[in-house]
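Notebook p. 47: complex prediction with S-adenosylmethionine.
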Amino acid sequence: MQKYMKSNWKKNKEGHDKYWGELYNFIAQNSTKYTELEQEFLALNYFEMKGSAPNFKIEDKLINGDCSNYVTAKQNILYNLIKDRIDGADYLIDLGSGWGRNSISYSMKDPDQKIIAGELSDSGKNITKCFTKKYNLPIESIPFNFFDFTTLIDYLKDKDISKVMLFSFHAIEQADFLREEEFRKLLALPIKFKALHFEPVAWQYREQEFPFGNHYNQNFKEVLESLEKDRILRVNNINHTHYQCNTNAGGTNSTLIEWEKL
Ligand SMILES: C[S@@+](CC[C@H](N)C(=O)[O-])C[C@H]1O[C@@H](n2cnc3c(N)ncnc32)[C@H](O)[C@@H]1O
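Predicted complex, structure tokens below:
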């Protein structure tokens, strides 16, 4: 209980509303210049990166990124992983979707896949909605909070759904202590779930000290292991070197985790 008290998602929301708000202003001011999704998507990525991309690693190989190969590499890595596993899921669900970059990027390659982009910040959701509306993408943007899954559960339970794939990219990282009961409630829905995450939690598996000194997640491994022990899910893959989107502590701890509901 004490751990839950620490979670300050409102402050986090304020910070992200401000951060994504600057990107929203860019889109609001520049959108008329673009008629092609690829162009506008790249322009927003470039604006966010302020002209220089981080170095990144694929299977431990260091790549000096420029903005273009950074965006393309990430798009290809995530697309290939998801497409090989999505197996006809009714929805791909992007949890903590930010401005929607991964949802939009996946949609560019698989335009028929229905996607739910769940995000805490309003400015992030608003950017996703701009892209969705303008380019007619099958992405539904919904409010979502890692500390309370009610909006997602309510959304799913009213639909005729048999299979979904959950996805998160450096988003669970923002929830210091996840609430296991929220996963239990979600997984109690009569739906087949599988999940693919990239989250900076390698230190949890290596039993190293918490490397961040901020609000970053500290219990994802613990939650998964507890749900696994109760045979609610099975973790199928843990890979600490598949893809690291930068070379700071966030990137070097980035871990691919896959699980499925039992
Ligand atoms: C590092 S960004 C990553 C966004 C996106 N996944 C991407 O790859 O661009 C983390 C995101 O998590 C969101 N977030 C922070 N706290 C959250 C919470 N409690 N519930 C849901 N999302 C949250 C932030 O608003 C932000 O958009």
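Notes: The mean pLDDT is 96. The beta strands are 56-58, 61-63, 91-95, 115-119, 139-143, 163-169, 192-200, 233-239, 243-244, 254-261.
Next step: compare against the earlier run before touching the bench.
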